[in-house]
Amino acid sequence: MSQTGIPSVNLADFLSEDPARKQKFVNEIGRAYEEIGFVALKGHFLSDELVDNLYSSVRDFYALPTETKQNYIVEGIGGQRGYTKFGNEHAKGSKVGDLKEFWHFGQYLAEEDKAKYNYPENVSVAEVPTFTQYGEETYKQLEKTGVYVLRALAIFLGLDEFYFDDKVANGNSILRAIHYPPITEEPKEGAVRAGAHGDINLITLLMGAQGRGLQVQKHDGTWVDAIAEDDELVINVGDMLSRHTNNRLKSTIHRVVNPERELWGSSRYSIPFFMHPVSDMDLSVLENCVTEENPKQFDDITAGDFLTQRLREIGLIK
Ligand SMILES: O=C(O)CCC(=O)C(=O)O
Ligand SMILES: [Fe+2]
Fold first, then answer.
1. Which residue in 80, 94, 113, 196 has the fewest CB atoms around it within 10 Å?
2. Domain containing 206 — which CATH number?
3. For ligand 1, what atom is nearest to the CA of residue 209?
């Protein structure tokens, strides 16, 4: 167990040559996802040095004047690359904007694949070149970590181990560097740093859950803090994977609460990696996840159509 009731797992078990250790990881993460939908994971591919370097360039970027940051807003792509300003995104079903600004890095395609996927180009920050560089390195290491997590889940679900590999290769994943600025006055209409929501994607790998703030809702409706240890990523199931598995794996509602008043003056930084498949992945419920007790719960849809629907619901596409 990590500090808070979110089960801890170690990817080194899955990567070991010992089949019993590998299966132990599969069982642990699978059971955790059938229950709380979250784990804290050690043994990932990010070095401490890369994490520190990325955070310091993230801080440098957000310290730029607002007008400079706004030069990096890309119109017409629902905030999928570059900068999104404070208050723009709200949780599905909520009317008040979250108390955050963020930046999106997207997939790094080889030149010859660009026409096939038609993703928006990544944006470089002239004032903080290291932000661009460490963002790309982190994107690739988190993507690699995510591929192994999905392999473990494929085994757990009784699929071929490599079932997800070609669905996430060149996928529409997003690395989001978030800044929750200091709170200067009583937030309007109960606005919080991040309103209660489920993530849209297959799985989310979150750097930066070390401080208090992130809370996860249990089946009984109560909230528990999710606080990771220094070397842990918090990894949760998103709505795409929950749909595909007919809700056998749970996309659990979570939020980021405002700190107590004494701590209003401090920022929170966090960096989730939203792992998406390619847009044409069929998210239709897997046959082996339909049983008499759990009949098919979701209509057939592709990942691309599901994403568009959800970006509208959270205010990123008008
Ligand atoms: O800031 C965090 O810890 C979590 C952010 C989050 O849940 C999200 O952006 O989807
Ligand atoms: Fe989230």
1. 113
2. 2.60.120.330
3. 3
